[in-house]
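anyone seen this seq b4? input:
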Amino acid sequence: MNDLLYKTYSVDELYVNYGTVSLDKCGLFLCRTGNADVLMNNHSYHIVKGGLVLYTPYTFIRIVRRSDDFDGYLMETDLDVLAIPISQVPVMDRLFIRNHPCIQLLPEQSRRIEQMTDILDSRHERMLRATSSRSVKLLRLVTQSLIQAFLLELMDIYFDSFPVEELRQDREERIFNAFLMSVHRHCDKNRSVVFYADEQHLSPNYLSSVVKAKSGQTAIQWIETITLVHTKHYLGSTKLSVKEIAEKLNFPDQSTFGRYFKKHCGMSPTEYRKQINPLHKSEYKRGKAT
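predicted toks r here
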Protein backbone atom coordinates (compact mmCIF):
# COMPACT_ATOMS: atom_id res chain seq x y z
CA MET A 1 0.00 0.00 0.00
CA ASN A 2 1.31 3.47 -0.88
CA ASP A 3 2.01 5.73 2.08
CA LEU A 4 -0.29 8.71 2.64
CA LEU A 5 1.37 12.08 2.10
CA TYR A 6 -1.31 13.83 4.14
CA LYS A 7 -4.40 12.93 6.13
CA THR A 8 -7.81 14.54 6.39
CA TYR A 9 -10.02 14.30 9.48
CA SER A 10 -13.68 15.13 9.99
CA VAL A 11 -15.07 17.23 12.84
CA ASP A 12 -16.54 14.11 14.42
CA GLU A 13 -13.15 12.38 14.43
CA LEU A 14 -11.58 15.34 16.22
CA TYR A 15 -14.45 15.60 18.67
CA VAL A 16 -14.51 11.93 19.64
CA ASN A 17 -10.73 11.95 20.15
CA TYR A 18 -10.98 14.98 22.48
CA GLY A 19 -8.29 16.77 20.52
CA THR A 20 -4.95 16.09 18.88
CA VAL A 21 -1.30 17.04 19.29
CA SER A 22 0.42 17.85 16.02
CA LEU A 23 3.97 16.83 17.08
CA ASP A 24 5.94 16.92 13.79
CA LYS A 25 2.84 17.85 11.75
CA CYS A 26 1.62 21.04 10.10
CA GLY A 27 -1.94 21.55 9.00
CA LEU A 28 -5.11 23.55 8.64
CA PHE A 29 -8.69 23.40 9.83
CA LEU A 30 -11.42 24.98 7.72
CA CYS A 31 -14.88 25.71 9.17
CA ARG A 32 -17.51 25.20 6.45
CA THR A 33 -20.73 25.70 8.45
CA GLY A 34 -21.79 26.63 11.97
CA ASN A 35 -19.44 27.87 14.68
CA ALA A 36 -17.22 26.54 17.46
CA ASP A 37 -14.73 27.47 20.15
CA VAL A 38 -11.35 25.94 19.35
CA LEU A 39 -8.50 25.57 21.82
CA MET A 40 -4.97 25.98 20.43
CA ASN A 41 -2.50 25.17 23.18
CA ASN A 42 -3.66 27.48 26.00
CA HIS A 43 -5.44 29.94 23.68
CA SER A 44 -9.11 29.82 22.74
CA TYR A 45 -10.71 31.16 19.54
CA HIS A 46 -14.27 31.46 18.28
CA ILE A 47 -14.53 30.45 14.63
CA VAL A 48 -17.47 30.68 12.24
CA LYS A 49 -18.11 29.68 8.62
CA GLY A 50 -15.02 30.61 6.62
CA GLY A 51 -12.76 30.47 9.67
CA LEU A 52 -9.33 29.05 8.89
CA VAL A 53 -6.95 27.68 11.54
CA LEU A 54 -3.29 27.05 10.71
CA TYR A 55 -1.19 25.04 13.10
CA THR A 56 2.50 24.29 13.44
CA PRO A 57 4.35 21.41 15.16
CA TYR A 58 3.68 20.70 18.85
CA THR A 59 0.30 22.41 18.82
CA PHE A 60 -2.55 20.97 20.89
CA ILE A 61 -5.92 21.36 19.13
CA ARG A 62 -9.30 20.72 20.70
CA ILE A 63 -12.89 21.62 19.80
CA VAL A 64 -14.22 22.91 23.12
CA ARG A 65 -17.77 23.73 22.03
CA ARG A 66 -19.60 23.51 18.72
CA SER A 67 -23.00 24.38 17.26
CA ASP A 68 -25.26 21.59 15.99
CA ASP A 69 -24.53 22.54 12.36
CA PHE A 70 -20.77 22.89 12.83
CA ASP A 71 -18.81 21.15 10.08
CA GLY A 72 -15.39 21.34 8.51
CA TYR A 73 -12.25 19.31 8.05
CA LEU A 74 -8.66 19.17 9.20
CA MET A 75 -5.76 18.39 6.85
CA GLU A 76 -2.25 17.71 8.06
CA THR A 77 1.07 16.59 6.66
CA ASP A 78 4.55 15.86 7.97
CA LEU A 79 6.86 18.80 8.53
CA ASP A 80 9.51 17.34 6.22
CA VAL A 81 7.05 17.43 3.27
CA LEU A 82 6.90 21.22 3.69
CA ALA A 83 10.56 21.82 4.51
CA ILE A 84 11.39 23.58 1.22
CA PRO A 85 8.51 26.11 1.07
CA ILE A 86 8.67 26.75 4.84
CA SER A 87 12.33 27.70 4.47
CA GLN A 88 11.20 30.45 2.06
CA VAL A 89 8.88 32.02 4.68
CA PRO A 90 10.71 34.56 6.91
CA VAL A 91 11.15 33.48 10.53
CA MET A 92 9.20 36.48 11.83
CA ASP A 93 6.26 35.56 9.60
CA ARG A 94 6.34 31.99 10.90
CA LEU A 95 6.32 33.24 14.49
CA PHE A 96 3.44 35.59 13.71
CA ILE A 97 1.37 32.69 12.32
CA ARG A 98 2.06 30.59 15.41
CA ASN A 99 0.92 33.45 17.66
CA HIS A 100 -2.10 34.31 15.47
CA PRO A 101 -3.27 30.96 14.05
CA CYS A 102 -6.87 31.86 13.12
CA ILE A 103 -8.15 34.09 10.30
CA GLN A 104 -11.55 34.80 8.77
CA LEU A 105 -11.75 34.11 5.04
CA LEU A 106 -13.76 35.95 2.45
CA PRO A 107 -16.09 33.73 0.36
CA GLU A 108 -13.78 33.85 -2.65
CA GLN A 109 -10.82 32.85 -0.46
CA SER A 110 -12.78 29.85 0.87
CA ARG A 111 -13.59 28.80 -2.68
CA ARG A 112 -9.93 29.14 -3.62
CA ILE A 113 -8.92 26.76 -0.83
CA GLU A 114 -11.67 24.29 -1.75
CA GLN A 115 -10.48 24.26 -5.37
CA MET A 116 -6.89 23.61 -4.31
CA THR A 117 -7.87 20.78 -1.98
CA ASP A 118 -10.01 19.18 -4.71
CA ILE A 119 -7.02 19.12 -7.08
CA LEU A 120 -4.75 17.81 -4.33
CA ASP A 121 -7.20 15.07 -3.34
CA SER A 122 -7.57 13.83 -6.93
CA ARG A 123 -3.80 13.51 -7.42
CA HIS A 124 -3.33 11.90 -4.00
CA GLU A 125 -6.02 9.31 -4.71
CA ARG A 126 -4.42 8.49 -8.07
CA MET A 127 -1.10 7.97 -6.28
CA LEU A 128 -2.74 5.61 -3.75
CA ARG A 129 -4.36 3.60 -6.57
CA ALA A 130 -1.21 3.38 -8.69
CA THR A 131 0.27 -0.09 -9.09
CA SER A 132 3.51 0.38 -11.02
CA SER A 133 6.53 1.65 -9.12
CA ARG A 134 7.19 4.29 -11.80
CA SER A 135 3.67 5.74 -11.50
CA VAL A 136 3.85 5.71 -7.72
CA LYS A 137 7.13 7.61 -7.76
CA LEU A 138 5.99 10.21 -10.30
CA LEU A 139 2.57 10.76 -8.71
CA ARG A 140 4.18 11.03 -5.30
CA LEU A 141 6.40 13.83 -6.59
CA VAL A 142 3.38 15.52 -8.18
CA THR A 143 1.38 15.30 -4.93
CA GLN A 144 4.27 16.55 -2.82
CA SER A 145 4.79 19.49 -5.18
CA LEU A 146 1.07 20.33 -4.98
CA ILE A 147 1.19 20.25 -1.16
CA GLN A 148 4.13 22.65 -1.22
CA ALA A 149 2.36 24.96 -3.67
CA PHE A 150 -0.75 24.78 -1.48
CA LEU A 151 1.26 26.08 1.49
CA LEU A 152 2.49 29.09 -0.47
CA GLU A 153 -1.09 29.81 -1.63
CA LEU A 154 -2.20 29.64 2.02
CA MET A 155 0.52 32.11 3.01
CA ASP A 156 -0.75 34.54 0.37
CA ILE A 157 -4.31 34.19 1.69
CA TYR A 158 -3.23 34.42 5.34
CA PHE A 159 -1.31 37.68 4.99
CA ASP A 160 -4.17 39.19 2.99
CA SER A 161 -6.58 38.56 5.91
CA PHE A 162 -7.09 39.67 9.50
CA PRO A 163 -6.39 37.45 12.55
CA VAL A 164 -9.28 36.28 14.76
CA GLU A 165 -8.91 37.67 18.28
CA GLU A 166 -8.29 35.31 21.17
CA LEU A 167 -11.14 34.63 23.64
CA ARG A 168 -10.68 35.32 27.33
CA GLN A 169 -10.59 32.35 29.72
CA ASP A 170 -11.15 32.31 33.47
CA ARG A 171 -8.63 30.65 35.79
CA GLU A 172 -10.44 27.31 36.01
CA GLU A 173 -10.79 27.13 32.20
CA ARG A 174 -7.04 27.71 31.86
CA ILE A 175 -6.32 24.97 34.40
CA PHE A 176 -8.63 22.46 32.71
CA ASN A 177 -7.40 23.25 29.19
CA ALA A 178 -3.75 23.07 30.26
CA PHE A 179 -4.48 19.71 31.92
CA LEU A 180 -6.03 18.25 28.74
CA MET A 181 -3.20 19.55 26.59
CA SER A 182 -0.61 18.04 28.91
CA VAL A 183 -2.40 14.68 29.09
CA HIS A 184 -2.39 14.44 25.28
CA ARG A 185 1.32 15.18 25.27
CA HIS A 186 2.45 13.07 28.21
CA CYS A 187 -0.02 10.22 28.85
CA ASP A 188 2.21 7.79 26.96
CA LYS A 189 4.64 8.06 29.89
CA ASN A 190 2.75 9.64 32.80
CA ARG A 191 -0.72 8.60 33.98
CA SER A 192 -0.63 9.94 37.53
CA VAL A 193 -2.86 12.86 38.61
CA VAL A 194 0.04 13.99 40.81
CA PHE A 195 2.25 14.52 37.72
CA TYR A 196 -0.29 16.84 36.06
CA ALA A 197 -1.05 18.69 39.30
CA ASP A 198 2.67 19.31 39.91
CA GLU A 199 3.01 20.75 36.40
CA GLN A 200 0.61 23.56 37.33
CA HIS A 201 1.79 23.84 40.95
CA LEU A 202 -1.59 22.65 42.23
CA SER A 203 -2.63 20.00 44.72
CA PRO A 204 -4.02 16.81 43.14
CA ASN A 205 -7.32 17.32 44.96
CA TYR A 206 -7.75 20.87 43.64
CA LEU A 207 -6.89 19.86 40.06
CA SER A 208 -9.35 16.97 40.28
CA SER A 209 -12.10 19.25 41.58
CA VAL A 210 -11.57 21.76 38.74
CA VAL A 211 -11.55 19.03 36.09
CA LYS A 212 -14.71 17.46 37.53
CA ALA A 213 -16.51 20.82 37.70
CA LYS A 214 -15.57 21.77 34.13
CA SER A 215 -16.20 18.45 32.41
CA GLY A 216 -18.22 16.12 34.62
CA GLN A 217 -15.37 13.57 34.45
CA THR A 218 -12.59 13.02 36.96
CA ALA A 219 -8.94 13.69 36.12
CA ILE A 220 -8.12 9.98 36.16
CA GLN A 221 -11.05 9.27 33.81
CA TRP A 222 -9.67 11.81 31.33
CA ILE A 223 -6.18 10.29 31.60
CA GLU A 224 -7.55 6.80 30.94
CA THR A 225 -9.77 7.99 28.07
CA ILE A 226 -6.99 9.85 26.26
CA THR A 227 -4.53 6.99 26.87
CA LEU A 228 -6.99 4.65 25.13
CA VAL A 229 -7.36 7.13 22.23
CA HIS A 230 -3.58 7.03 21.79
CA THR A 231 -3.53 3.23 22.16
CA LYS A 232 -6.20 2.73 19.48
CA HIS A 233 -4.27 5.07 17.18
CA TYR A 234 -1.09 3.00 17.58
CA LEU A 235 -3.01 -0.24 17.00
CA GLY A 236 -4.97 1.06 14.01
CA SER A 237 -2.61 3.43 12.24
CA THR A 238 0.93 2.15 12.88
CA LYS A 239 2.89 -1.02 12.25
CA LEU A 240 4.17 -1.17 15.83
CA SER A 241 3.84 -4.60 17.44
CA VAL A 242 1.73 -4.97 20.58
CA LYS A 243 4.94 -5.35 22.58
CA GLU A 244 6.36 -2.14 21.07
CA ILE A 245 3.12 -0.29 21.85
CA ALA A 246 3.26 -1.54 25.44
CA GLU A 247 6.81 -0.19 25.72
CA LYS A 248 5.85 3.11 24.07
CA LEU A 249 3.03 3.53 26.60
CA ASN A 250 5.41 2.77 29.48
CA PHE A 251 3.69 -0.39 30.68
CA PRO A 252 5.97 -2.77 32.60
CA ASP A 253 5.29 -5.60 30.13
CA GLN A 254 3.00 -6.71 27.32
CA SER A 255 0.77 -8.76 29.63
CA THR A 256 0.01 -5.77 31.88
CA PHE A 257 -0.80 -3.68 28.82
CA GLY A 258 -3.09 -6.41 27.47
CA ARG A 259 -5.02 -6.62 30.75
CA TYR A 260 -5.37 -2.82 30.88
CA PHE A 261 -6.71 -2.65 27.33
CA LYS A 262 -9.11 -5.58 27.80
CA LYS A 263 -10.45 -4.09 31.05
CA HIS A 264 -11.43 -0.86 29.26
CA CYS A 265 -12.26 -2.16 25.77
CA GLY A 266 -13.56 -5.68 26.38
CA MET A 267 -11.05 -7.33 24.05
CA SER A 268 -7.32 -7.83 23.66
CA PRO A 269 -5.16 -5.42 21.64
CA THR A 270 -4.68 -8.10 18.99
CA GLU A 271 -8.43 -8.71 18.72
CA TYR A 272 -9.04 -4.97 18.39
CA ARG A 273 -6.42 -4.67 15.66
CA LYS A 274 -8.07 -7.49 13.68
CA GLN A 275 -11.49 -5.83 13.89
CA ILE A 276 -10.57 -2.45 12.44
CA ASN A 277 -9.60 -1.22 9.00
CA PRO A 278 -6.63 1.19 9.40
CA LEU A 279 -6.99 2.72 5.90
CA HIS A 280 -10.69 3.44 6.50
CA LYS A 281 -9.85 5.08 9.81
CA SER A 282 -7.25 7.40 8.32
CA GLU A 283 -9.21 8.63 5.32
CA TYR A 284 -12.03 11.15 5.26
CA LYS A 285 -13.81 12.28 2.13
CA ARG A 286 -14.60 15.97 2.14
CA GLY A 287 -18.28 16.21 1.29
CA LYS A 288 -19.58 19.29 -0.42
CA ALA A 289 -21.28 21.82 1.84
CA THR A 290 -25.02 22.05 1.46
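The chain has 13 helices and ten strands. The beta strands are 6-10, 20-21, 25-33, 35-40, 43-48, 51-55, 60-66, 71-78, 102-104, 166-167. kinda curious what u guys think
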